[in-house]
Amino acid sequence: MYVEGRLKTKITEKEDQTRSYKTEVVISNLIFLNKKSDFEG
Fold first, then answer.
1. CA–centroid distance for 37 within its chain
2. What's the whole-model pTM score?
3. I want to staple 33 with a disulfide (CB 3.0 to 4.6 A). Which of 10, 25, 37, 38 is the partner?
4. Phi-psi map region of 40: left, alpha, beta (phi>0 left; psi -120 to 50 alpha)
5. Domains of the chain, residue spans
6. CA–CA distance, 5 with 31 (Å, rounded to integer)
């Protein structure tokens, strides 16, 4: 599997001044490879 993309972090501040962090993977390109040679080179 070959994946291209970026990480996106959301920060939420609660009423008690604590913060919550959530990190997501945003995929822009996903390729399922059959064998090693599909991506070499």
1. 25
2. 0.54
3. 38
4. beta
5. 2-31
6. 12
